[in-house]
Amino acid sequence: MTMDAGPAITGGRTALGIELGSTRIKAVLIGPDHTPLAVGSHDWENQLVDRLWTYSLDDVWTGVQQSFAALAGDVRRRHGVELTTVGALGVSAMMHGYLAFDADGALLTPFRTWRNTNTGRAAERLSAEFGCNIPHRWSVAHLYQAILDREEHVARLDHLTTLAGYVHWQLTGEKVLGIGDASGMFPIDGATRGYHAGMLARFDQLAAEVGVELTLAELLPAVRLAGQPAGTLTGAGAALLDPTGRLRPGIPLCPPEGDAGTGMVATNSVAPRTGNVSAGTSIFAMVVLERELARVHRELDLVTTPAGDPVAMVHCNNGASELDAWVGLFAEFARGLGAEVGPSEVFETLFTAALGGASDCGGMLAYNYLSGEPITDLEEGRPLFLRSPDSRLDLGTFMRTHLFASLATLRIGMDVLQKTEGVRLDRMFAHGGLFKTEGVAQRFLAAAIDTPVSVGDVAGEGGAWGIAVLAAFTADRAPDRSLADHLDTTVFTSASLRTVEPDPIDVAGFDAFMQRYVAALPVERAAVDHVGVGQRRTADTETTSAIPTEEASE
């Protein structure tokens, strides 16, 4: 905390970042030295409605307003001043998905999140037509699937955006998007750092072939790079953010970004040969490339950093949620025995036990698939635990199995990147609640990708802190300074890291686990085929909260 925090806050020498993660909406206020001065958050959950994962827009604004109110209260308590302005503001959120609006700004269909995997036909056709991988969760796949399904709303479509783009639009009136988030909507041309013109034209042709006339370029948000201005907070936007009326309009905003981009910023992983792994509801790796990949791989997305540099993304729909559910079960058992233990203590006890488990998980297997998983060709998921009859069911091995399972699909994608494409990494940074128990998940990730893994305080307050840093970069940017230089020389000069080298025994154990995991995938497929799921349910009901499961989580 800076000594002059009060004057910095009242003088507007601050930046505010708001990130809408998958289970938490968080606001972070940073000072002139990028130190967090105050935080506020609000928990929320997605719902599975008519077999599609969604959030209501009412919940978006309830969560944003409550996060800001909690932040303002934190400012009041810690610094004794009212929060009436900030020097810069930024919004980040889960990437991808489908938010479609008509010319009057009305939502045409419930928000379809990144988690949906109903876009298989569209993703396959677009990947073939474009000559690059278009994953199920990308916005263009959602749009083309709606066209193929002849959904009525397509004829009235006027504007398509992401969750971050939507919130930014409501705050500023500007239909823009940071290039990192935009790269998860539609492929980016590395030369122009805008949407790929040839692919835009081909998409319009594909739509016309099924009787839909549109110009996709007119539907997508304008693309902005890190450091470029992206509008100012309007009076209506200020009232949306702070219904009390204390917050004044006129605050400049940076381009809205996706959680993957803010995770790169929060871990100082925007330069070539750097990467980060974020573990939350989903788990994904972002690796900044120094050359083009040799060929197209369905396991890899090609997206960009917030500055527009190419990134290979390994995105797995299923991360820590199933592990969190098992920990919740043990916590419930402890309460049944009358033990007064907090969630953090439960997680630490169980995670630490995993260090003593069999290195190859001793014949146990788990699949953490609450939803579909495109990397393993599953359109739906069924959480599954199984073991061989000769395996010994001990706590340490059981927990190691579920931790390995949380990393297994990521390993499949990283094998393509590291072994097939020969991409080299100078450093891999891990962040998210999965890594809060020191030396456990970090050690297992190092084994999974056979690469040194660092964790530390550089992730700060996670993606919300990352978008606040981007907001400050826009407000104070020197014309000749790149984002990578800014992070190295201004933001992360005193960062502290703990690095774990891969242990050869763990590496061999994870390899053996993966052989069984891949061989038994037909069992998971059979579970999907033969075990039904209800039409409506609330996802990720968690009895503990020690793993924050948002994308690019804190």
TrEMBL record:
<dbReference type="Pfam" id="PF02782">
    <property type="entry name" value="FGGY_C"/>
</dbReference>
<dbReference type="Pfam" id="PF00370">
    <property type="entry name" value="FGGY_N"/>
</dbReference>
<comment type="similarity">
    <text>Belongs to the FGGY kinase family.</text>
</comment>
<dbReference type="InterPro" id="IPR018484">
    <property type="entry name" value="FGGY_N"/>
</dbReference>
<keyword id="KW-0859">Xylose metabolism</keyword>
<keyword id="KW-0808">Transferase</keyword>
<dbReference type="InterPro" id="IPR043129">
    <property type="entry name" value="ATPase_NBD"/>
</dbReference>
<protein>
    <submittedName>
        <fullName>Sugar (Pentulose or hexulose) kinase</fullName>
    </submittedName>
</protein>
<keyword id="KW-0418">Kinase</keyword>
<dbReference type="InterPro" id="IPR018485">
    <property type="entry name" value="FGGY_C"/>
</dbReference>
<feature type="domain" description="Carbohydrate kinase FGGY N-terminal">
    <location>
        <begin position="15"/>
        <end position="239"/>
    </location>
</feature>
<dbReference type="GO" id="GO:0016301">
    <property type="term" value="F:kinase activity"/>
</dbReference>
<dbReference type="InterPro" id="IPR050406">
    <property type="entry name" value="FGGY_Carb_Kinase"/>
</dbReference>
<dbReference type="GO" id="GO:0042732">
    <property type="term" value="P:D-xylose metabolic process"/>
</dbReference>
<keyword id="KW-0119">Carbohydrate metabolism</keyword>
<feature type="region of interest" description="Disordered">
    <location>
        <begin position="533"/>
        <end position="554"/>
    </location>
</feature>
<feature type="domain" description="Carbohydrate kinase FGGY C-terminal">
    <location>
        <begin position="276"/>
        <end position="474"/>
    </location>
</feature>
